[in-house]
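Deliverable D4.2, example record:
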Amino acid sequence: MKKVLKRGMISFFISSFAGVLVNLIIDIVVNAGGTKGFISMSPDFVKMFPTPVIAAYVNVMLYGLIGFTFSVMAFVYEVEKIGFVIQSIIYFVVTATVCLSITVILWQLHKYPAAFAGTLAGYGVTHVIMIVIGYRKLKEDIKEINEISLDIGE
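Output generated by the structure prediction step:
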């Protein structure tokens, strides 16, 4: 458990830093292009806080929470008593719940149904791709283990 939490904290800080860096680059490029005072946060999100600075701090914390969730939930793939399909479903449900909730808050997607549907579809497609790749890798690993077992048995 300690290893999982350590990995989660590292991912929290990496995700937070990456979020700050991406927002900084967007802000610099857009402001350099002539849009003065632009900040890469939804105006409705910023209005939820007393100051834009507090909104920015919360924004960074939410980026970190997304990274933490993805990292910590990877432990489900280390539980040997659960099959790959169930592991994938658990991983998808938990990460989708946390990450899509945060995305809805940050981007105020509840006000834009088409954007919410697109985000949800993109998230679902991404997970399907991840599951297919993981399944193929798992089959390949099992095949290699079986070949080694047959070689040893001969």
